[in-house]
Amino acid sequence: MKKRSKLIISTLIALSTIIAAIPNANATVFSYKRTTGIFNAYYDYSVAQYGYTSQFDWARSQWSGISSKVSIGKSSKQDKTTDMYFVDNIATSGVYGQVINYKNGGSNTVDPNVGNWDYSVVILYDNNLASDGLKNDTNIKNSALHEVGHSLALAHTNISNSTERASSVMTAGTDTFKNRNITSPSTYDKGELKYKWGN
Questions:
Q1: Core-most of 11, 57, 80, 199, by most CB within 10 Å?
Q2: Cα separations in angstroms, 51 against 7, 79, 196
């Protein structure tokens, strides 16, 4: 009986070591994703009006090319597969951006953990960025990059490694390790994008 118990304990220890060694990439991506990673974005007039054009251009360029299956172009017209980028104001304090996903070009919103979507509306909130001292090139790039990352099915970085969270652009704004000076996807972010879309 003692030998059997030792064998079971040894097997459990070995198994837990193997499980711990497997990266838990699924912790920081949504369960579903958009129907294609190669698409265009249409800029609402508000993007230029508030002066956010170069930062959205930057965000698109930073996510494009990491995976051969992800590329975000720019379109002068909107259709049922084109993302829309907006700049707006919101009454809720501390919210700097939001992504809303839609299916079939209609008004049906999609929870990214419930189903796939066809396009996203990406919004940055100018009043909160300004009131919290974040309306500068670096911090707007960070917010745009973060929200566009959500449109590509990346969730908030949710791992125990604080170093990874401190370098990830996808770390939640409420996380104490959030660094708003990051303007490019980290190695971890790039790995998550490839995990979701392939190389």
A1: 57
A2: 65, 24, 32
Full domain range(s) for residue 143 = 29-197
**Domain containing 49 — which CATH number?**
3.40.390.10
Q: Going by C-beta distance under 8 Å and a sequence separation of 6 or more, which residues neighbour residue 199?
A: 67, 68
Measured in Å, how far apart are the chain's first and last C-alpha atoms?
50
Long-range contacts, 165-173 (Cβ 8 Å, 24+):
168/28, 169/142, 169/145, 170/28, 170/146, 173/94, 173/96
pLDDT of 134-192, one tens digit each? 999 999 999 999 999 999 999 999 899 999 999 999 999 999 999 999 999 999 999 99
The number of domains in the chain is 1
